[in-house]
Each structure stands twice: as C-alpha cells, then as structure tokens.
Amino acid sequence: MEKQEEVILLDFWASMYGMRVRIALAEKGVSYEHREEDLRNKSQLLLEMNPVHKKIPVLLHKGKPICESSIIVEYIDEIWKDKSPLFPSDTYGKARARFWADFIDKKVFQPGRTLLYTAKGEEHEAARKDLIDSLKLIEGELGDKPYFGGESFGYVDVCLIPFYTRFRAYETYGELNIEGECPKLTAWAKTCIQNKESVSNVLPESLKMLGLVQQMRKIRGVDE
Fold first, then answer.
1. What is the pTM of this model?
2. How far apart, in Å, are the Cα atoms of 88 and each of 44, 91, 113, 155?
3. What are the pLDDT digits (tens) for 44-57?
C-alpha cells in the first residue's frame, strides 16, 4: 500500500465503537494497520490526532484523522463506495439510519453503562428499564427484516451489532432476559454473526467481555 493511501486505526479490542470501524473496514475489504491503545497510558499519536476528546477509535487516512465511530463508518462508506454500500441510496433512508445510530448511542450505551457500573438502587433500576425499553423500540424498527437495511447488512447493523457482545453482561448485572424480551433482535444478532465474516471475525466472545466487565466493576469499587 502506498504511503498516501495508508490507513491506520487507533483502537482498543473491547471498544464497541472500535468494533464498528473494524466491521465497516472489513465490509469494504480495506487493508489497514491496527494499533492497540493502552487506555490508561494513551499514545502521543492518539492525543495528537484526537485532541478534543482524546478517545478511540481514530481512523487515520492519508495522514488525516477522522474521529467518532458513527462519523468514521460514514466516511468509510463514502470513500470506499464501490463495495458493500452501508447507507441506503435515498435521502430519507440515510436520515432514518442516522437517527437510529444516534438513538443507539444515547439510549443503549448510556443506560447499559449505568447498569453495568452502578450498585443496585434507583439509578440502577431506572437504567435497567431504559435499556430494555430502548431495545424493544429498536426491535420494532427491525420488524421482520433480516437486517435493519432490509435484505442487506447496513449502517444501523454495523452500529448496533457490537452491543451484542455486552448482552450477557447486561443480563448478568441487570437480571434481564434479553432473548425472552427481544427475540427478533437476538435472532438478528445471530444472523449477523452466522452470515457476515466481517462481524464474526471482529466480535469477541461474550464471556470474554463479561470477564472484562467483572474486572472493571472491581476497579470502580462496585464489587469487592
């Protein structure tokens, strides 16, 4: 690969947002260099390339940084447009996809984080309810389609599927039965893993993610 076409991803293996970018790059068949970050000792490159938030993932393309996973995925779709389009072709479809990606970031990530990293109480119970309510709304958007993009794997699928790696942790610490509450959503996730190598090759095992959550709960003082 020529230097001007160099693609580098600053990432962390357990980041759901980093998983989005890895899946999108795999869908497009883009070769890239993956650089694993130590989030407790961030590299100088990461701090320089994302001086505002200082967070991963950051995609470096031709030496220029692109930050925020949903923006990175959209960038990837526009730059490498000849293979596996992720966005619908119509303007309304694109707007709707962006809406659901934003909903996922606000209404799945936030209550999920609270559920995993707070002790039981009112805040924990509110997060539990918010999370399952949000997943049900997302399941309603999926309907009977194989993918959120219809017959083809698309932008919303890329944005949501990394959260499946947290489902076991959500169930463990939220006393939830996500498959029972959202059977179509769970079936969708299994379809993605079975049919898309871009997904199965990227997503870590749920037990590995659960182990990481257990470690983080101890570090944060939630568990002894």
1. 0.95
2. 37, 8, 30, 8
3. 999 999 999 999 99
